[in-house]
Amino acid sequence: MANPDLEIWAGMRAHLRGEHPSICRQWFDEIEPLGINAGVLHLRTATDVQRNYLMRQGQEAFDDAARAVSKYFLSVRFLGPHDEPEPIRGSVVPAARRAVGLDLHPDNGFENFVSGPGNRLAHAASVAVAGNPGKAYNPLFIHGGVGLGKTHLLQAICLQIAAERPDAVVYYTSCDDFLNQFMEAVQRGQMADFRHRFRDVDVLVIDDIHFLASRERSQEEFFHTFNALYQADKQLVLSSDERPEEIPQLEQRLVSRCQWGLVAEVEPPCFETRVAILKKKAKLRGLELPDDVAAHIAALIDTNIRELEGAITKVQVVAMIEGVPIDLALARKALGERVEVRVASGPSIPQIIEAVTDYYQVKTTDLQGRRRHRSVALPRQVCMYLAREQTLYSLEEIGGFFGGRDHTTVMHAIKTVKSKRLLDPELDALLRSLEQQLRTAPKPA
Ligand code: ADP
Ligand code: MG
What 3 state SS string does the chain have? Predict the structure, then answer.
């Protein structure tokens, strides 16, 4: 194998893994070096989306790697599967793309999405829509908190449709971008163009639609866009941080349209799902994450998935700096044990248990036991609720204090108390007084 381009490319991959690990992806192995021409190394990706990712995030790192490995002033040009290598000097004009709007991220395919109890419906509905745009659920409306996978699902739908139906026009954008384009079109008197852009598509996907709130004219325009697409059996996919009826100042007629199809929620992932997501994310970067390390990270971070990814990066960087493989000791060192910090910032769980058992006149051992009788079930749920509210322990950790109950039990307890509290003034008063008492409790040493 004396092909110098192949050797340079192999050296570059090693260089990238060492110097620019955060942009490295497993599919780099499938990139094909086409050769060097006039000081430019041409690299061909398997998809346009991968090429766009590299053009956005990889240019500097790849140029750096090319120079470091070849020792020449070499630069890199990325080509998609259909781009012609450019023999003449000048910049590569990517082939016309059918998918317009904002760029999609190649990591956001269905193959990299972990489905679990918190997102099962949203995931299944997205798969159905991607397989049968305009026919399965229309519109598909996905809502939920920050970092729980809404954008990922929306982009997965776009990626799959673009891959399977090259003739379909898929428009993916954010609500922000929709609003900006609308304002620009109004100012420039180019509404016809604007309407053509958003209405002559097969699939319109708009992320974070809650930003439409309180924008009257934009809502009006979106309403007509919606109607035009819906009547033509074109697929609409929307995401938001709240369910349609809870988006403040969203006109009623839009609320009801958003509810015509399927409204699916994404909820925080459970422990097992978090472990699976960590493994997926690590694999994408070509990293080996031992089971106990994944479990450690998943137990430390139980809300936002973006933070899980941040934790992998931290561990990865420390491992690289120290030149050692990733193991539990290293992960602890990189991420710390947040448990101590948590305890110091509020009442301890034993203090919560003491306050609650005092009031209900039950024994601590009853709370930790298996009995489900009402006389202990409610106090136990109240404890879990207060622990979640007043400490930074994760759901798993709280479950651990109550006889090793799992996080779904804890989650259920919290939900139950939350809704009972709204309906039952007596319980609400009790909780208020416990909250007050715990706030002023002496801090544990
Ligand atoms: P949102 O749009 O809901 O704020 P994102 O879709 O941007 O959240 O997700 C944040 C990060 O978490 C992304 O990197 C995404 O790939 C990842 N993520 C979220 N949910 C999952 C999942 N179920 N499986 C794999 N990755 C996920
Ligand atoms: Mg998002």
Answer: CCCHHHHHHHHHHHHHHHHCHHHCCHHHHHCEEEEEECCEEEEECCCHHHHHHHHHHCHHHHHHHHHHHHCCCCEEEEECCCCCCCCCCCCCCCCCCCCEECCCCHHHCHHHCCCCCCCHHHHHHHHHHHHCCCCCCCCEEEEECCCCCHHHHHHHHHHHHHHHCCCCCEEEEEHHHHHHHHHHHHHHCCHHHHHHHHHCCCEEEEECHHHHCCCHHHHHHHHHHHHHHHHCCCEEEEEECCCHHHCCCCCHHHHHHHCCCEEEEECCCCHHHHHHHHHHHHHHCCCCCCHHHHHHHHHHCCCCHHHHHHHHHHHHHHHHHHCCCCCHHHHHHHHCCHHHHHHHCCCCHHHHHHHHHHHHCCCHHHHHCCCCCHHHHHHHHHHHHHHHHHCCCCHHHHHHHCCCCCHHHHHHHHHHHHHHHHHCHHHHHHHHHHHHHHHCCCCCC
